[in-house]
Amino acid sequence: MTSEILFDEFAELPTIDYQREAGLDYGTAYAAGGRKDRPEGFYNQLLRFDLRGHQVRRWFEDGCFPGEPVFVPRPNGADHLEGVIVSVVLDGKRGRSFLLVLEAQSFEEVGRAFAPHVIPFGFHGEFKS
């Protein structure tokens, strides 16, 4: 058996498009992680790993601490990257949380919806259509 380190990243809570790729040779994974230049003791970034191209895309914002990323497929989408990533994020500067929505392929922010309070950290998230 052999192994290969694909990325030098601290990453936890990995996820994929389970609806279309569970049990298959998937090429994209998402995770929460910690930035090396900001060792705050909490997850402080979200990561998108291109497992074939060995590239990483990141979302981070100073003072913000995301939870587990959850892939939500586009209804009737054919491609495994058609969808969004959602994550509950604690905004430490504002003292409240928001739901972050990232476009799955570009990993760019689509939007956010603020809660009127802090949502306690949970270990896992899920999406129900």
Mean pLDDT figure:
86
Q: Helical residue percent?
A: under 10%
Biggest beta sheet attributes: 5 strands, antiparallel
SS summary, helix count: 1
| Backbone shape | globular
Strand content: 35-45%
Radius of gyration: 15 Å
Distance between the termini: 40 Å
| Number of domain modules | 1
Q: SS-based structural class?
A: mainly beta
Low-confidence stretches: none
H/E topology pattern? EHEEEEEEEE
Q: What's the number of extended β-strand segments?
A: 9
Report on the architecture of this protein:
The chain has one domain. Strands 5, 6, 7, 8 and 9 form a 5-stranded antiparallel beta sheet that branches. 25% of the residues are buried. Strand 7 and strand 8 form a beta hairpin. The protein starts with 9 loop residues before the first strand and ends in a 15-residue tail after the last strand. The chain has one helix at 18-21; strands at 10-15, 28-34, 45-50, 55-59, 64-66, 70-73, 83-91, 96-103, 109-114. By secondary structure, it is mostly beta strands. The mean pLDDT is 86.
